[in-house]
Amino acid sequence: MILSKRMMAVLLLVLTMLAGCGERVGEGPKEETSVQEGEAVSPGSVDDQETAEPDAQETEGGTTDMIEPEQLAASLLAGEYERIYNQMSEDMQEVVSREDFESTAKSFTAGVQAFHPESVVKLNGAERFVWLDDTRTKGVLAAFGPDGLIEGLQVLPLETFPETDGQLTEQRYALPFKGHWFVFWGGTNVMTNYHYAYESQRYAFDFVKARNGMSYEGDPQLNESYFAFGQDVLAAADGEVVGVVNDVKDNKPLVETNENEPAGNYVVIDHGGGEYSITAHFRQGSIAVREGDRVRKGDLLGQAGNSGNSSEPHIHFQISDSPDLMTGKSLNVKWDGGFNIVQGETVEGAQD
Prior knowledge:
This protein is mostly beta strands. It has 6 helices and 21 strands. Strands 10, 11, 12, 14, 15, 16, 17, 19, 20 and 21 form a 10-stranded mixed sheet that branches. It has a 5-stranded mixed sheet with strand order 3-9-8-7-6. The longest helix is centred in the N-terminal third of the chain and has 12 residues, at 98-109. 48% of the residues are buried.
């Protein structure tokens, strides 16, 4: 399917969210705007929720029922284009006309039998929903504001890598923390895991600490306001420390990032068998290990921070086939307990 460049720039998000790392580790909250084709809720639970009585929205043509966020993909597939368009924010409607939206939506949904919920992210006042079709090669992403308006909509053909998706690491790894953390990026498609587009970080995860649907309390431009900042980061398995950087300053949240040193402060551990854990964005000066140290699973590595190409305190974690983040290949992690981790879940680290 070929779209005009204008449409490729139209159906995405107007959200400030912790972005994935792309080719740089931990690229933090971004604002994006477009409609493209081209507390946490577990995936799969949306279909089981009852639809609430819809609210009403004033439009030029009168009053129309607002679509519940969980029903957006079904409404798109049902061809309710006018209803969806009328619920878009003014900013979105300024970027894409109703005619262009309908044309793109019809082309994209042709041949699709159903969209299934993949992830839900409700954090810091933003709500973000992802659905995939039966073949997992088409995805829909919708972002809603607190007033129920659609602030962002993305429809996207999805590239998949089934051979490596199905290959897990030889070793098992524990989560690199204790307690409950929120999975902001994680999964095997670009809509739930921004890293997936890049071979060097395809199976990476970004974890934030959240309470009552918020990752911070107080001034969002202070690192100390974020629940993740200063939290202990632990070794995910036994191994030898082969890389450490500890002197990169922490960024001011939402204001600055450090693209010149994308990983910020980090620790690389050789776990044997060609598997290396890379944990990034530590708090400046907090790393407690040195190159050559032998560590055991659960040993303290340092504290979570906001260094590198990051704009909110969080933990970036991945397993690679090389100690070099940029040249190695990311490996799909086999977790202790055999569970799968995807965006929108709250997971609990319980290391011995």
